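Quick one:
INPUT:
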């Protein structure tokens, strides 16, 4: 950023570092590095949790699929076994009738009864196997929901911790460095501080004018002996230390404000160019005088002279007009006044 450059609103003008440096190094930078390392670990934990969740839930889904297929098969086998059991029961009933009619031997009846019991036992085994498949599916589906909820809870906690770390990192970075933005669109009139300079709260860092052609003002402090001869609208000649008047000449200005009472010591101390420089022992009276420059950007040899805030100026005030002989005999007038009698109204 340079003086005279046009800037938009919220354009960064300065970046200020607020780091604290101890014998162990920059405290804030160490904190930022630590938080970033925690963010990396947190991100790995979240990815691992999501991967484990997907793997375990897929495994349970595969088991559910396997038991679904087994259940379908066991249902088919159980249905066929039930049909065969019923048929063998009818056959056993017929064999019992045949036995009562002495058409078959007891051994044949017992053999048929044994085959029926075997088939009935087979159906019972298939029934319990089918029931076991149903219960296993219920357990697996319940386990799927529980595992999914547990992983979701762990992932949510990890993501919440990750967000807290990101917020902590943002706060640490803000504390470490923050930007000073232009409050408005305009032209940079002056840059008060330079790179590496220490600043404190309330310091002026830069001056931005929203109108490059606006008037420029300067504050002067008139001693009490000059105050009676100055009034609003008077013209003065202004000189800039940045533009030596021997080369650039003087600039015309107009007095737009002259205080009617002397400035207080507190007011004088607020200005760097005040004649007292904050010395409370100073007893002279000074009047605040504001001068407006006639030209905000005068030309010199076809080049613009940029007048910006903070420039040191001096001025020539035209107080009174006297003939030359009065200036020559001014000491005699003082003697005459000192020996004269008191004034009568």
């Amino acid at each position: 950023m340079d003086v005279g450059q046009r800037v938009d609103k919220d354009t960064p003008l300065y970046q200020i570092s607020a780091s604290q440096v101890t014998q162990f190094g920059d405290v804030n930078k160490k904190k930022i590095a630590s938080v970033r390392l925690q963010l990396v670990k947190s991100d790995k934990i979240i990815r691992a949790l999501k991967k484990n969740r997907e793997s375990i839930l897929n495994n349970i889904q595969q088991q559910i699929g396997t038991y679904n297929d087994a259940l379908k098969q066991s249902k088919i086998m159980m249905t066929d076994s039930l049909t065969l059991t019923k048929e063998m029961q009818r056959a056993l009933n017929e064999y019992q009738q045949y036995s009562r009619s002495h058409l078959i031997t007891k051994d044949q009846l017992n053999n048929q009864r044994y085959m029926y019991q075997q088939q009935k036992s087979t159906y019972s085994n298939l029934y319990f196997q089918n029931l076991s498949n149903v219960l296993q599916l219920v357990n697996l589906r319940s386990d799927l929901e529980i595992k999914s909820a547990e992983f979701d809870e762990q992932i949510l906690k990890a993501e919440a911790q990750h967000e807290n770390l990101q917020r902590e990192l943002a706060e640490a970075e803000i504390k470490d460095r923050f930007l000073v933005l232009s409050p408005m669109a305009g032209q940079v009139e002056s840059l008060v501080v330079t790179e590496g300079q220490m600043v404190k709260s309330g310091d002026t860092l830069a001056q931005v004018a929203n109108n490059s052609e606006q008037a420029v003002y300067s504050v002067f402090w008139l001693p009490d002996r000059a105050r009676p001869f100055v009034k609003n609208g008077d013209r003065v000649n202004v000189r800039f230390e940045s533009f030596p008047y021997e080369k650039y000449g003087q600039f015309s200005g107009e007095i737009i404000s002259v205080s009617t009472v002397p400035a207080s010591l507190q007011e004088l101390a607020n200005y760097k160019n005040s004649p007292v420089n904050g010395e409370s022992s100073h007893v002279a009276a000074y009047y605040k005088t504001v001068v407006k420059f006639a030209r905000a950007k005068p030309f010199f040899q076809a080049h613009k002279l940029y007048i910006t805030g903070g420039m040191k100026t001096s001025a020539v005030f035209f107080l009174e007009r006297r003939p030359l002989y009065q200036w020559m005999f001014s000491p005699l007038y003082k003697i005459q006044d000192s020996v004269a009698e008191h004034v009568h109204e």
